[in-house]
Amino acid sequence: MKETMEFKTETKRLLDLMINSIYTHKEIFLRELISNASDAIDKRHYLSLTDEKLGASEYKILVEADKATRTLSIIDNGIGMTKEQLVNNLGTIARSGSKEFMDNLTDAQNKGEIDIIGQFGVGFYSAFMVAKEVEVYTKSIETGEPLKFTSEGLDSYTIESTEKEDYGTKIVLHLRENTEDVNYDNYLDEYTIKDLVRKYSDYVRYPIQTWVTKYDKKDENAKDDEEEKTHLELETINSMIPLWKKNKSEVTDEELNNFYKQKFMDYQDPLLSIFVNVEGMLTYNSLLFIPKRPPFDLYSEKYEKGLQLYTKGVFILDKCKELIPDYLRFVKGLVDSADLSLNISREMLQEDRSLKKIANNLEKKILSELGKMLKNDREKYEEFFKEYGVNLKYGLYEDYGAKKDQLKDLIILNTLNSENPMTFSEYVAQMPEGQKEIYYASGKDKTAVSNLPQMDLVKKQGYNVFVLTDDVDEFMIQVLAEYDGKKFKSINQGDLNLLSDDENKAIDSLKEEKKDLLAAIKESLNGKVEDVVLSKRLVDGAVCLSCEDGFSFEMERVLAHQNNPYAKAKKILEINPNHEVFKAIEKAYDSNKDNISKYANILYNEGLLLEGMPIDNPVEFTKDISELLVNSIEK
Ligand code: ADP
Hints:
By secondary structure, the protein is an alpha+beta fold.
């Protein structure tokens, strides 16, 4: 008996695509066929649970290359296929995965995204990417009837009786002729086979074997120039049990570290490894690692975040970005879930609810492990934060602080009075009675910040101050707004509210008295400052610049760096009413009102210099200073 049958139209389209595929990762055909073989063994094994005689003594998958005939065979002792199954499974696109693939195909083709093939798992048909003809020998455990299916992947296929001893399926691929671009003979090479199996199917739970060349032991009498003799041995290539499928307690730290180094090509042990085994509504295993040093390209646009994705031990995707939020982009690792389909597509992945759930759980897990590290191993956490803290800060700032509650207690920042960085809660705990707000100041480093004249009054009160040095810091603080009911307060913005009522009143009445002078200074500065006031924050310094609460000088600086020079903080020139300088200016103003513009400019430029901002007109400034010098020396 030999029957010829037509492929269905959509199957023809898929076959046509495979045959004419310019897809560069044709190699995935082996993964697909091995996965089918493994599923077939699963099914047989399942049947044997209720009917012992249906089982096999040993399950395995054999990959056999024959260079003479240019064939590659994938042989399993699984459940096999009946004639009806051959027609339904191989003659038709039955699977949802392939269907989905077809539905997306036109769209993808239009976009030239032929790359999606590898992410779909197009199953059996992928064989035609490398084979000009495929023969399937199969013997079903249900019927025991040996059958042969043959197809050249064109319009039709044939099914006929054949001889086959064992249950299961043997798929024989007659490789296509080599072309300039593709050397199909490669797939007959034992090293290539080993490589591909290790890359894609290492954790398939049945042994995958192939014939490998071994050197014979040399005959003692053999002459030196005699060629070494070889023989072939059957070898199991895959490691079968993935580390992440083992029981957590069985895996040593060393094993984890070695696995990380080998898999993610690092020469150092990871800073943190996390082992996740989850069983229940959603079953998955995951291994997560934080490298000791961030990848060199972590902050470049080319860097691709993501975890490796496996389903049932079969490798699907190298960088599944849906599994990790942006701010944890430095985390490496993998996820293996039986709840995801091998045939899942890129588009489906984004929508997949199980995947989203897994991603959420992993995010929580990572944050909770970091929290533990902060609590139990402070030194290590500080090391971690030095390398990656800025990512957490961005995470807190992103999406208008959507994640602030999860992240705020993982932030540590340097402070004026402590040697090591502090959490917000530690800061609050050390606040002396009477301190109502959490102070912060931005600058190059601790010393620079400590020397700022705006710091005077806060320091005098003995209050600690967070020292902000990262670009994102003030933006993060802005999003947080408060911690534990205490507002964040910049030392050079708004009213510090640190003076007594009497002190306040004294300054207010002096301000009233000197309003002409202050107005004259403001006027001569010609719109450069929003206001000129008598300072309520300076103690030793003569002048400083401050601004209203909200948008700050630091933010202005950061945005200017990001090519947004238009956002400006409104400057207020503060003069210390108790300083000699103020008294001198008062005098000067009283004797000759015309001089004020020169003094105003000098004070303003001093303020700019203190803030680390460029002065508007350095030539004029130095001229003014020189003139003053001469005057004072002449006196
Ligand atoms: P998928 O494996 O994703 O369902 P395929 O196109 O690869 O899609 O295969 C279609 C069907 O053919 C499989 O679902 C399975 O029922 C059957 N099949 C494929 N390979 C084998 C095999 N080696 N042994 C038994 N059945 C197989």
